[in-house]
Amino acid sequence: MTVADERLAGTGVARRLLIRPELGAVVGALVVFAFFAGQSEVFRSVEGVANWLDPASTLGIMAVAIALLMIGGEFDLSAGVLTGTVGLVTVILATRYDLPVWGAMLAALAVALLVGFLNGLVVVRTGLPSFIVTLATFLMLQGVNLGVTKALTGTVQVGGLRRAEGYEEVRAVLAGTIPVGGTDFRVAILWWLAVTALATWVLTRTRAGNWIFAVGGDERAARAVGVPAERTKIALFMTTAVAAWLVGSIMALRFTSVQAGSGVGQEFVYIIAAVIGGCLLTGGYGSAIGASVGAVIFGMADKGIVFAGWDADWFTFFLGAMLLLATLANRFVRRYAEEVKR
Question: Is 310 helix (H, G, I), strand (E, B) or coil?
Answer without folding.
Answer: coil
